[in-house]
């Protein structure tokens, strides 16, 4: 059975318990498939990236196949919201909004009816089609900069708390390009770039730990600065060895490889 998330951010946990590790999140409107149930939780698989985890059942609503005629992704960081049963609900960038056809086939951009819920859309709501597109450097950097100062949160994907790979995934999602959820998965895609001096804004830099495992990713602003989630989403210097913390001058991440997705 397919469901849709009807809260701003729904935690996806490793186990069916509120105290369990948060491995990812579902943003408003993101769809998932129910795999199992235990107590107050559903085990789900995200339709967008295939990630699996346990989500509180009351945060999800069943949906009919073929219910939507148009799918959009929210691209605004500030003051984007919808009304769910006449209650305002803030949206994080990367949230999904859907539109259904009326009886005469015209797409209804005002409201969406779900079992037990009525969703009313703010207008104008900054949206773009949730479909493949070819982004450009300027669009990626503009989108990425709206997360500047967002607190780091393990498993996070929202403007209220985000991890390094969630940050990259959400920026590219809003620009019509899919990248996987985890940094090591993201490192397996894209085209390799030989040297930092060959990179362009929007390219991805990956970093490894002492065991050689990819543990961090960021978005290059140019060949000497990187935007990444480390404590907060911040800008730090980067060279061929890795990231240098802007305030302390300490090296924090060892550069492993560079990739271009567009």
UniProtKB/TrEMBL annotation:
Keywords: Hydrolase, Protease, Thiol protease. Belongs to the peptidase C40 family. InterPro entries: NLP_P60_dom, Papain-like_cys_pep_sf, Peptidase_C40, SH3_16. Pfam families: NLPC_P60, SH3_16. It comes from the Bacteria. The keyword Zinc does not apply. GO terms for biological process: proteolysis. Residues 134-262 form the NlpC/P60 domain. This is SH3 domain-containing protein. PROSITE patterns: NLPC_P60 (PS51935). One of its GO terms (molecular function) is cysteine-type peptidase activity. SUPFAM superfamilies: Cysteine proteinases. The keyword Protease applies.
